[in-house]
UniProtKB/TrEMBL annotation:
This is Histone-lysine N-methyltransferase SETMAR. InterPro entries: RNaseH_sf, Transposase-MT_Hybrid. One of its GO terms (molecular function) is nucleic acid binding.
Length: 82
């Protein structure tokens, strides 16, 4: 229906999955210098991060996937440094 090609994902990559990369840097910045005593507090902070992101943030992550996958394929699955 969407006319997408499915690219197989190996069981292990030395780098994070390209689909997750867009998420981790902003999440790291969001959590920077926060301290958590309880796991539940940490969990709520992560949920707050997800809730605070705009639709444009999530759209960009999806739109960037083809380029990120091309980098992974071009590098033959080797570690990617941005």
């Amino acid at each position: 229906e969407l006319k997408w090609d499915t690219v197989l994902h190996p069981p292990y990559l030395p780098d994070i999955a390209p689909s997750a990369y867009h998420l981790f840097r902003p999440l790291k910045l969001f959590l920077k210098q926060k301290r958590f005593v309880k796991y539940e507090d940490f969990k709520m902070a992560v949920f707050d991060f997800f809730d605070s992101q705009s639709a444009a943030f999530w759209k960009k992550g999806i739109d960037d996937l083809p380029e990120r996958w091309l980098i992974v394929v071009t590098n033959d699955g080797q570690y990617i440094v941005d």
